[in-house]
Amino acid sequence: MNSVQQMQRPTSAELDAADPLAGQREAFYAPSDGQLTAYLDGNSLGRPLKATSAKLASFVEDAWGSRLIRGWDEQWMDEPTAVGDRIGVVTLGAAAGQVTVGDSTSVMLYKLIRAAVDAQAGRDEIVVDRDNFPTDRFIIEGIAAEKGATIKWVASNPASGVRTTDLEGLLSERTAVVVLSHVAYRSGFLADAAAITAMVKEAGALMLWDLCHSVGSVPLELDAWGVDLAVGCTYKYLNGGPGSPAFAYVNASQQDRLQQPIWGWMGADNPFGMTESYAPARGIRSFITGTPPVLAMQPLKDMVELIASVGMEAVREKSIKLTEYAVALAEDILVPLGVEIVSPRNTAERGSHITVDHPLFGEVTRTLWERGVIPDFRPPHGLRIGLSPLSTSYAEVELGVTAIRDALTELL
Ligand SMILES: Cc1ncc(COP(=O)(O)O)c(C=O)c1O
Ligand SMILES: Nc1c(O)cccc1C(=O)C[C@H](N)C(=O)O
């Protein structure tokens, strides 16, 4: 069967017409170059909201331009935790007072993992999976070298992700902290965070989740799951823009126990006291280091409120439908060409992107970008199709998967 429209399932037009969130796409900028037809990389960089232009302009003119240095006293000092609280309540299942925004995910990973290892006296092992994102693994390599700690690698299936069974035999009285990604950046595998967290805590270790690929696309219940620590970026499904700051979650029960290693004046008890030596602030503020990136925090605030207005459950429902549609199309028109779908088929185990594999996908991705179809490529052969529930249409998915088929067919 050649045309996707002839198949026994709703067409993309029917799916878009029935989509209760379809109208939300209007909130985002459509590309102005006229060439882009399918943006399938919101799992790397989300589209900007139209509201962001006005938000930034008014920040420059009013908050920055008029209030000038007074802005710090009036609002900006509280911005990392005020924005953190909103991210926490709307997307993380975290009560106020446990989330702060700033730094990059990599730096936040360093601060929290190092704090965890320091706090876990007598425990000198860090558990991480071999397929975790490079920055997570590299930061852990660095901390292990600094502290003389040992890395225990989880040998999970790269085409899926880490399950409780993969951790059996790895956790012991020597485990300080376990670091895993909730949604795997390659396969899109969605880990069972509740079960894994319970298992890790049972072993007396601390659990740190990297939420980069789940925040804003998968509902999270960090407090209810008993998670100790989490980090995530805000430029994917929170649409904060390139290089927007990360967030860190530190469960209230761990805040007095953990001391992060980069002591700066903004995380000190009395920043403007200009004191002789460092005394940490109370609570989540002690995880701040230097001047918070207030300007770079502005765009994500509108996205968090947009998510709050529709609810994370609705976001997840659309995400599942989008990935189901992408998988079904891939099965019909890509698998017959020798493509492998490496993402889980079970929706309960899948985040908001799917990955398809073929030895020619490096070349195919280059062609697609020239044609205005934007997925991304992760070596050795993975082509990732990222589906942002509030800004991706079913028509884009159809166009994108069809374009993959056409570009691949030309090379075969
Ligand atoms: C799982 C994961 N962790 C961390 C990062 C990135 O960290 P940073 O924002 O510090 O570059 C990414 C993506 O870039 C990611 O996918
Ligand atoms: N963080 C990125 C960047 O600075 C440039 C280009 C892409 C990214 C990404 O987000 C990569 C992404 N985390 C991944 O899963 O591969």
TrEMBL record:
Q: Which family does it belong to?
A: Belongs to the kynureninase family.
Q: Which domain of life is it from?
A: Bacteria
What this protein is called in its record is Kynureninase
GO BP terms in the entry: anthranilate metabolic process; L-tryptophan catabolic process to kynurenine; NAD+ biosynthetic process
Q: What class of enzyme is it?
A: hydrolase
GO MF annotations, alphabetized: kynureninase activity; pyridoxal phosphate binding
* Keyword list, A-Z: Hydrolase, Pyridine nucleotide biosynthesis, Pyridoxal phosphate
Q: In which pathway does it act?
A: Cofactor biosynthesis; NAD(+) biosynthesis; quinolinate from L-kynurenine: step 2/3; Amino-acid degradation; L-kynurenine degradation; L-alanine and anthranilate from L-kynurenine: step 1/1
Sorted alphabetically, the Gene Ontology cellular component annotations on this record are: cytoplasm
Q: Is the keyword Hydrolase in the record?
A: yes
* Pfam families cross-referenced by the UniProt entry: KYNU_C (PF22580)
Tell me the function of this protein. Catalyzes the cleavage of L-kynurenine (L-Kyn) and L-3-hydroxykynurenine (L-3OHKyn) into anthranilic acid (AA) and 3-hydroxyanthranilic acid (3-OHAA), respectively.
Q: Which co-factor is required?
A: pyridoxal 5'-phosphate
Where in this chain does the entry annotate a coiled-coil region?
none
Record note on quaternary structure = Homodimer.
User: Which catalysed reactions does the entry list for this protein?
Assistant: 3-hydroxy-L-kynurenine + H2O = 3-hydroxyanthranilate + L-alanine + H(+); L-kynurenine + H2O = anthranilate + L-alanine + H(+)
Organism listed in the record: Arthrobacter bambusae
